[in-house]
Design brief:
The protein has 22 helices and 14 strands. It has a 5-stranded mixed sheet. Strands 8-11-12-13 form a 4-stranded antiparallel sheet, with no helix packed on it. It is elongated. Helix 18 runs parallel beside helix 20. The protein has 5 domains: 61 residues; 44 residues; 173 residues, Nucleotidyltransferase, domain 5; 66 residues, no CATH class; 85 residues, no CATH class.
């Protein structure tokens, strides 16, 4: 007679009939059990103090009765393949557990040693005798959130699309946001996953839902996170500003932990299989347009496998009203960078220069640009603000320079004229002649050197040297320096032309004037008479 497993419901049926007064033969005929099995169950019932005619016991007594029934297992019958593999059980277990070999490799090694069995037989044996494929971790179902409490975001590969602007197919990714309560989803196709594309996808999804949830669980998108740490993740500043602008809390999932975002995790293959595969698209704009229609009319109108509700109906009835409304203002994506203040008091940000006060020279600062303004921070404190310049531009606040260097940076010649007059009238006159002309800025360094000469040799000596240089009209700071080095400033302060009149010298080899005339001279006529005629 073949083995038949006795179920718990059979135990309860035997007990119910026996308490009602039926005999062994009647119970066996009504339940289809063997009479010996019926007698064994009646014996167990009597051991628990039950007898015919008693009322139906409570659940605890029934549990004690069914738990006391010894269920004989099926007879140990091993197939031919199982008997062969039982001889190599320890070796197979070692390959699987210690050596961590995959089962196909174990099947190959057994074939090399002459143990020829099918892979299906080996798989059944490994699951039965070697604990292969059994889960060791225990999972629990998380509590369902409240309406509008959270949404989950993930990126997944869809496939290739013939884009109109390119000569070959391009890989398309899907930005997927799923509301945690209603399970309504939004799909936005993109080619790239940079920060600008990610924020644009968020904006498209929030417009689709007509609001923002309070919390968004985000996969580890490199554009959003500077550090994807499982304990202390760090978002970049631009994305944090966007989250604060839209009033939601970003919550990063741990790397390689799909259980942190279970709602959206299984939605990625669903979108790829049910929406993208088998369809023809002419461009990514066509994919985006049809994706929103599919999310609203197909995925949103199905009966969800977990909630057993229609996502669109639940969203419209319970979730839409509790979402944070969208602001009409458009978010401008800022650009952040870590810059060092160079010795010229400027930082280089987006290929433009911006000045910073002197005390921050050599330090690192945080620079933020939003297209209109550039803000410079040091240790979270705003230290400077500039209007943003195009590439190659420069914004300089001359108050950032030290007072002694600001005039040269501003190319201000009158400053040096004033400083020269303070030293002496001759020095002032020398600087006036030095800086005269249409472009005095090219000689500002010489004016600076003249002021340093006054600091080195004293105002009196430089004043005398300038008098001597002016008398010779030698407006050259290098010559003025040689005069001071050789101590010649007091040798002669008078005009050399007045003290010693010039001496007329005879010029040798001087040609006559008619030598330079282009008209021929008549014989017997002097050049002067010919010129008069």
């Amino acid at each position: 007679m073949p083995y038949r497993e006795v179920r718990v419901v059979d135990y309860q049926e035997v007990l119910r009939r026996w308490l009602a007064g039926d005999g062994v033969r009647s119970i066996a005929r009504g339940t289809g059990l063997d009479r010996k099995t019926v007698r064994r169950l009646i014996k167990i019932a009597r051991e628990h103090g039950l007898k015919p005619g008693d009322p139906w016991p409570d659940d605890q007594a029934i549990s004690m009765f069914t738990g006391s029934v010894r269920r004989p297992g099926p007879p140990a019958q091993h197939s031919a393949s199982e008997r062969i593999l039982l001889e190599r059980r320890e070796q197979i277990r070692q390959w699987i557990e210690k050596d961590e070999l995959i089962l196909t490799k174990v099947h190959e090694l057994l074939a090399r040693e002459g143990v020829v069995v099918s892979y299906a037989a080996l798989h059944r044996f490994a699951r039965k005798w070697c604990d292969f494929g059994k889960r060791t971790s225990i999972t629990v179902r998380k509590l369902e959130g409240r309406p509008g409490e959270f949404a989950e975001v993930d990126f997944g590969r869809l496939g290739f699309v013939e884009d109109l602007g390119s000569s070959r197919p391009r890989l398309v990714y899907a930005f997927i946001m799923v509301m945690g309560y209603s399970r309504l989803s939004c799909v936005v196709p993109v080619f790239r996953q940079d920060l600008e594309s990610v924020i644009r996808c968020f904006e498209e999804a929030f417009r689709f839902f007509q609001g923002c949830p309070k919390r968004v669980v985000i996969d580890n998108v490199k554009a959003c996170l500077d550090l994807a740490d499982p304990y202390v993740p760090r978002f970049n500043r631009a994305f944090l500003e966007y989250a604060a602008f839209r009033k939601f809390i970003p919550d990063p999932a741990r790397p390689y932990h799909a259980k942190d975002k279970p709602v959206v995790e299984r939605h990625v293959p669903y979108v790829r299989e049910r929406f993208f595969k088998g369809e023809k698209f002419i461009s990514i704009d066509d994919v985006a347009r049809r994706a929103l229609v599919w999310c609203r009319d197909v995925a949103g109108r199905r009966i969800h496998g977990t909630t057993r509700c229609v996502p669109m109906e639940v969203f419209e009835a319970e979730e839409r009203a509790v979402l944070t409304p969208l602001e009409a203002e458009r978010f401008v994506i800022p650009c952040w960078d870590r810059c060092q203040v160079h010795p010229d008091h400027h930082v280089r940000f987006l290929y433009a220069l911006y000045s910073v006060p002197t005390q921050y020279v050599g330090k690192e600062v945080d620079v933020r640009g939003d297209g209109a303004l550039v803000r410079i921070y040091h240790q979270a404190q705003l230290i400077k603000t500039h209007a943003q310049k195009p590439r190659g531009g420069r914004s300089t606040d001359y108050d950032d320079y030290p007072k002694e260097r600001a005039p040269y940076a501003m190319r201000y010649p009158d400053y040096y004229r004033k400083k020269g007059q303070e030293i002496g009238p001759a020095v002032g006159m020398f600087i006036d002649k030095l800086l005269e002309g249409e472009f005095p800025w090219c000689r500002l360094r010489q004016a600076q050197k003249l002021l340093r000469l006054a600091e080195r040799y004293g105002a009196a000596r430089v004043e005398a040297a300038c008098v001597r240089a002016l008398s010779y009209e030698a407006i050259d700071v290098h010559r003025l320096g040689h005069i001071l080095e050789q101590g010649l400033e007091h040798e002669s302060s008078e005009n050399p032309q007045a003290s010693s009149p010039p001496v007329q010298q005879t010029l040798r080899f001087l040609r006559p004037a008619h030598h330079f005339s282009h008209q021929p001279i008549s014989p017997g006529v002097t050049p002067c008479k010919q010129r008069l005629n």
